[in-house]
Amino acid sequence: MDELVKNRLTEYPDLKLLIDGVWASVDTRASIAVTNPATREVLGFVPVATRQDLQMAVEAASKAFAHWKKRTPLDRSSILRRIADLVRERKDRLAVILTLEQGKTLAESQGELTAVADTFDWMAEEGRRVYGRIVPSRFPNVEQMVIYEPVGVVAALSPWNYPAALGARKVATALAAGCTVVLKPAEETPGIWVALAELCVDAGVPNGVLNLVFGNPSEISDFLLSHPAVKKVSFTGSIPVGLMLAEKAARSLKKITLELGGHSPVFLAEDTKPEHVARLAVASKFRNAGQICHSPTRFFIHSKIYQRFVESFVEGASALRVGNGLHQGVQMGPLANGRRVKAMEDLVADAKQNGSRILTGGERCSDDRGHFWKPTVIEDLSENVRLLREEPFGPIALMIPFDSIEEAVTKANQLSVGLGSFAFTNSISTAKYLQDNVEAGSLSINTFTITPPEVPFGGWKLSGTGSEMGSEGLIEHFNIKTVLRTEV
Ligand code: NAD
């Protein structure tokens, strides 16, 4: 075993369920092995929740809701703030857990945990600002009020790419709103939420307010989505699963927030500095090994700067050090699982067959102990190439030249997804054109920043429905009640 991994293994938690404040270990339950994607070594076994566990989790969340919704927003806020403080205090150990099970570099794990703390801090504040409205009446002596009431139990289903931060969005928002949660993180990365749930308990989250379950994803989602006590579902993951959950949620009209895949375009106008943008783009594209729903992937580059941009980008991509995220100096970790490596292989093979040129990468790394894939850059993409339509969700960047920005935007908008998008230009009129015409939930101009907690994040078209974070994400956790009141 890798010495460094061996030394840090003691920091990996015992994997357990949390139901009504009680921790439940594998015991007589079935279990699923959790492996380190950098070494394929087993880190632990996560218990599979039984039907009875799930029933108890929903009942606990339901019972706790009656009390949690009555706590003052200020009171809930102080607990959320304590969570944020504890995340900052325990960041070093949490980062090791995240790197061990997800693969990202330690620096990336630290960054993700900073985002977790910031998320709880933001919701701690925003939860205090759910004002409702007083609406002037058309009748004398009548008061009209719009009141927000928390919806109740939230089923939160979070994925493996940003297991800490994406779970935190769901938990922090629900708790700030006065809702309670049954959280099912991805079974590939369970440890970080076991540690974060411990931390939530330490911060004073009462029994039943946050419940943690793992198991068979479809059995758990079937159970939660058909349970009458669950009032809202929040899922981050793939489009096929999101669509299936939306159908199930519709049967009992549960509220739903879906954050699904994207295939982000980046528009580089002729007035940008290609070498400068290439440096930023390499850092952004290969962050988290490209496993980000808004990862910049389709680079539409004005033909006048195409060559310079592509050369700089390829130089930066091929110089990246890929390896075990625990090791110093590593800039990109492994892919999170073998499915992603297989997906990269299939997509690259298809591109090659259709005449595309692989400018760098396009294959596994020589260290085949883990799920390592080389940073990959591809050009000469004919219409048939699957990568133009299918999100790689991995470290693959596509180079596409254009002559007019209108043509690039039309091409980019042809897909049925619209999550993140980016543009680089010094021209106000080009920026305005893009702002008015790009079909996506977010557009970042002259920056690759996209998801600070104070702004909403969500997708258009098949990329999702609803928003997370900002004040918009919070409001989705409330029922609206209109009250008309007069004297008898
Ligand atoms: P997948 O479709 O099997 O799973 C995606 C996520 O959904 C996982 O977290 C999984 O645990 C969960 N899931 C699967 N079936 C479920 C069900 N029936 N009920 C509830 N949850 C369920 O795909 P995968 O191989 O894990 O990932 C592949 C694709 O998923 C990627 O290509 C990417 O498009 C998408 N993805 C998106 C995000 C995101 O941030 N939007 C995150 C992870 C994965």
Describe it.
The protein has helices spanning 3-8, 51-68, 73-89, 91-102, 106-126, 163-177, 191-202, 217-226, 239-251, 274-285, 306-319, 338-353, 405-413, 428-437, 472-475, and strands at 17-19, 22-24, 31-35, 42-47, 133-135, 142-150, 153-157, 180-184, 210-212, 230-236, 255-259, 264-268, 296-302, 357-360, 376-379, 396-402, 417-418, 422-424, 444-445, 460-461, 464-465, 478-486. The chain is an alpha/beta fold. It folds into two domains: 3-260 and 463-483, 3-Layer(aba) Sandwich (Aldehyde Dehydrogenase, Chain A, domain 1), CATH 3.40.605.10; 265-452, Aldehyde Dehydrogenase, Chain A, domain 2, CATH 3.40.309. The strands form six sheets. Strands 14-15-16-13-12-18-19 form a seven-stranded mixed sheet, sandwiched between helices. Strands 9-8-7-10-11-21 form a six-stranded mixed sheet, sandwiched between helices. Strands 5-6-22 form a three-stranded antiparallel sheet, with no helix packed on it. The longest helix is centred in the first third of the chain and has 21 residues, at 106-126. The structure holds nicotinamide-adenine-dinucleotide. Nicotinamide-adenine-dinucleotide is lined by residues 157, 159-161, 186, 217-218, 221, 236-238, 240-241, 259-261, 293, 339, 391, 393. Residues 157, 159-161, 186, 217-218, 221, 236-238, 240-241, 259-261, 293, 339, 391, 393 line the site of nicotinamide-adenine-dinucleotide.
